[in-house]
Amino acid sequence: MWMVFWLAMGLCVTASAQPSDLTPSQQYIERWADEAVYQMALHGVPASITLAQGILESGNGKSKLALKSNNHFGIKCHSKWNGSRVYHDDDAKDECFRAYQNAAESFQDHSEFLKKPRYEQLFQLDPTDYKGWAKGLKKCGYATNPKYANQLIELINRNNLEEFDKKGLTLAADREAFAESKQATDDLQERTKRDANRHVFNQNKNGELVSGLRSIQTSENEIRYTLAISGETYESLAKDLDMMTWQLYRYNGIERNSKSAPYRPAIGETVYLQPKRTRGREDWVTIRDGESIWQVSQRCGVSVRALVRKNRLSEQNPLPESQRLSLKWRITPEGKLPGWVRTIKGPGG
């Protein structure tokens, strides 16, 4: 029933194309899009530019330099590079290029490389102005090819890479939300304390929550919530809490229309009083026996839509065989965390 429920809510997910159905560029995008989006959120380099440069500079990850040294962006050693290096013919014979333990390090170094004063003017552009970035990279001397900017723009347009810039901005905003100042956290805690005294409920001898002390709490994911009592509906709860009924339905992912009967949460069921997050505190959550994706969503405070996307779920793949869901990152087609995350966390990441 829950499977039908969340699909009916408009969470339409199409099955991922098999690698054999994708062009080399599409395979590269499928493999590295999340990394580019993350780098945009962290450093401000448009994801579309990162992906287009990676495709062009590394030959879709198949160039000798990419295969030999995991260098996807053709970055040369330069005087301040103290890491590993390889030698490769480019503008001159046996030029020094940076080498990395894995390609994710190459993406990270690419973002940091563009933080040089030489490229600082690019960060004054709108983050979705990929054309300005492409032309600026050529003007600042990233590449000697006179057609470099046009090549990047053509790749972005052909593969709709600008869509990943929107995702980068969303992730950046999400990161900021998780990095709220101490003052904002203190304010939230103070509001929670005040609201906790608004209604009073206690447990009676049958274990039901009745008039006495209603506790409005803050979850680990920093979302205000309360627990449902016996006989309560979203309509009656909204009235008690001086909220709009639609807010409770929307915040908790419950479908509602003019013909729907009032939703009655189970006794003790979590009822969120704020929107659920798009990311969780932990990397993974284990699915309990018989638990639906909506129930996982309620338990972790992460929206169903976010769980579906991050875990590549579909009607053909409603829940992963591993019985665990990623809460922070969109997993790879192989069911793993992005490469840069695994690099930081080690083999167990």
Please describe the topology of this protein.
Elements: H1 2-8, H2 24-43, H3 47-58, H4 64-69, E1 85-88, E2 95-98, H5 103-113, H6 130-139, H7 148-159, H8 162-178, H9 182-195, E3 200-203, E4 209-213, E5 217-218, E6 224-227, H10 234-240, H11 245-251, E7 270-272, E8 284-286, H12 293-300, H13 304-310, E9 324-326, H14 339-345
Antiparallel strand pairs: 1-2, 3-4, 5-6, 6-7, 8-9
How would you concisely characterize the structure shown here?
The protein has 349 residues and is mainly alpha-helical. It is built from 14 helices and nine strands. It has three domains: 159 residues, Lysozyme; 91 residues, no CATH class; 69 residues, Membrane-bound Lytic Murein Transglycosylase D, Chain A, CATH 3.10.350.10.
Word description of this protein:
This protein has a three-stranded antiparallel sheet with strand order 5-6-7, with helices on one face. Strands 1-2 form a two-stranded antiparallel ribbon. The protein is elongated. Helix 2 packs across helix 5 and helix 10 crosses helix 11 (245-251). It has helices at residues 2-8, 24-43, 47-58, 64-69, 103-113, 130-139, 148-159, 162-178, 182-195, 234-240, 245-251, 293-300, 304-310, 339-345, and strands at 85-88, 95-98, 200-203, 209-213, 217-218, 224-227, 270-272, 284-286, 324-326. The protein has three domains: 20-178, Lysozyme, CATH 1.10.530; 182-272, no CATH class; 277-345, Roll (Membrane-bound Lytic Murein Transglycosylase D, Chain A). It has 14 helices and nine strands. The longest helix has 20 residues, at 24-43. The chain has 349 residues and is mainly alpha-helical.
